[in-house]
């Protein structure tokens, strides 16, 4: 205890700090070339003005309020607050880095002397990310993203889709974080990459979108197996593909003119019974997938619907909508909560083709399969 007290006593003598401990904030103070810093004292305006306030830099006078002298090169660059002793220094240069001392003589003749350190950095600017110019394909391509900037950069960090980017099995950083290498790129590597460049006084950032092409795969054809004649019927081809797939429908082996995900029959005839094939094509991956579905058209129900039966159908439809709504909700959450490493089968992209449908009696496709796209589609088809 005694020793600590002795040390702190001699420190007070060395720094000449007789009162007002910690008048300046703990240094260093950081500044950027061309910008402004403020050395702020924590002194409250005294009842009587200070007798003298003087600031010096590496032993050279900056300003002395008694003699009203300003050091060379400071006249246009400083503002002294005479009630608090705070000093503003503008248009910083690298040469302003160093030790600043303030000496204040209060009306009571009590003297406060304190020092702090200023470090001036070249500001960080012109951040930019360079990524691969060619198309990227899931499981095949490799990509390097490189972040460059101007100025004195002391920190480089990467973010993806607003989250810090961790290294992974297929992703690593160069030692200085300048480059992110991804090999091979996977579906979940698609997204918005940001690099953040900083020093203690300034920062800059840049962003870059990475698109990973894949598919089509995970095809599901959503359709009833049987439809009542003269009803509205929809066959919907759901597939996962980036870029979105192009579609072709075949009926009993013959090309049709339908080139959308949804094959819409506004009023179905007996001759619409048969084998439907959906072909999905991705022009970039140059892959095709197809799926088949058999649809039978049957007679109208013999008994016309009683109001009770109609109500029953309404309830069923409502239930389906609710179920589908929940599925969609969980599907969305599932995607939103997706953690760092989803499996490659997780679908990030859904077909966006959504037919606008009239609302006559609808042949509901069979119960939802557990793909997210299926849920999305159901919702669309019923609403
Ligand atoms: C400020 O100027 C006065 C008058 O010239 C002088 O007495 C005083 O020592 C100076 N203070 C400092 C810290 O240089
Ligand atoms: C000096 O600083 C005090 C406290 O921050 C402020 O209220 C006052 O306006 C300043 N005076 C001048 C001349 O800038
Ligand atoms: C800042 O300093 C530079 C170089 O000394 C000078 O050219 C410029 O005019 C100054 N700007 C201001 C606002 O004082
Ligand atoms: C930043 O980029 C601009 C425009 O490309 C250029 O004029 C400027 O010199 C660059 N600044 C630095 C510090 O490299
Ligand atoms: C890509 O790799 C993942 C994980 O290794 C695998 O599950 C997936 O089937 C692969 N996809 C293709 C198109 O090769
Ligand atoms: C990425 O950078 C590494 C290391 O510099 C290099 O070996 C590799 O060939 C680069 N890959 C691509 C796709 O440019
Ligand atoms: C590189 O990034 C990591 C993770 O964001 C960070 O902890 C580290 O400080 C960075 N290194 C450099 C040199 O910026
Ligand atoms: C850079 O960061 C700032 C502040 O966080 C943000 O407002 C801005 O949008 C970012 N710019 C880019 C290109 O990411
Ligand atoms: C199917 O039958 C409808 C009338 O029932 C007819 O208008 C249509 O041309 C037929 N289509 C084919 C391909 O035979
Ligand atoms: C994909 O389908 C298109 C159109 O039917 C066809 O021209 C192309 O050859 C097919 N490509 C492959 C790889 O099967």
From TrEMBL:
Residues 355-383 are annotated as: Disordered. Residues 123-207, 216-290 form the Ig-like domain. It comes from the Eukaryota. The keyword Glycoprotein applies. SMART domains: IG, IGc2. Residues 369-383 have a biased composition (Polar residues). InterPro entries: Ig-like_dom, Ig-like_dom_sf, Ig-like_fold, Ig_sub, Ig_sub2, IgSF_CEA-related. The chain crosses the membrane at residues 309-332. This is Ig-like domain-containing protein.
């Amino acid at each position: 205890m005694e020793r600590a007290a002795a040390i702190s006593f001699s420190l007070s003598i060395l720094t000449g700090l007789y009162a007002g401990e910690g008048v300046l904030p703990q240094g260093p103070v950081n500044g950027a070339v061309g910008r402004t810093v403020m050395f702020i004292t924590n002194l409250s305006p005294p009842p009587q003005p200070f007798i003298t306030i003087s600031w010096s830099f590496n032993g050279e006078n900056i300003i002395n309020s008694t003699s009203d002298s300003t050091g060379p090169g400071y006249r246009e660059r400083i503002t002294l607050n005479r009630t608090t002793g705070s000093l503003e220094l503008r248009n910083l240069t690298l040469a302003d880095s160093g030790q600043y001392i303030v000496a204040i003589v209060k009306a009571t003749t009590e003297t406060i002397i304190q020092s702090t350190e200023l470090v001036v950095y070249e500001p960080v600017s012109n951040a930019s990310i360079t990524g691969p110019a060619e198309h990227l394909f899931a499981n095949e391509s490799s990509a390097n993203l490189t972040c460059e900037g101007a100025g004195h950069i002391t920190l480089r960090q990467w973010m993806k889709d607003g989250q810090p980017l961790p290294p992974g099995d297929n992703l690593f950083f160069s030692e200085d974080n300048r480059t992110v290498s991804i090999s091979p790129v996977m579906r979940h590597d698609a997204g918005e990459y940001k690099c953040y460049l900083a020093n203690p006084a300034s920062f800059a950032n840049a962003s870059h979108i990475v698109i990973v092409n894949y598919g089509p795969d995970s095809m599901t054809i959503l359709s009833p197996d049987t439809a009542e004649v003269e009803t509205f019927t929809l066959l919907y081809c759901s597939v996962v593909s980036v870029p979105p797939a192009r579609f072709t429908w075949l009926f009993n082996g013959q090309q049709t003119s339908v080139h959308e995900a949804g094959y819409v029959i506004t009023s179905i005839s007996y001759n619409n019974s048969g084998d439907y094939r959906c072909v999905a094509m991705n022009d970039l991956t140059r892959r095709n997938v197809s799926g088949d579905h058999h649809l039978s058209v049957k007679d109208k129900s013999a008994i016309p619907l009683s109001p009770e039966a109609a109500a029953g159908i309404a309830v069923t439809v409502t239930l389906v909508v609710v179920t589908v709504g929940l599925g969609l909700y969980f599907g969305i959450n599932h995607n939103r909560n997706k953690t760092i490493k989803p499996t490659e089968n997780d679908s990030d992209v859904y077909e966006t083709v959504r037919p606008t449908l009239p609302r006559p009696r609808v042949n509901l496709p069979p119960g939802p399969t557990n793909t997210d796209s299926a849920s999305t589609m159901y919702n669309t088809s019923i609403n």
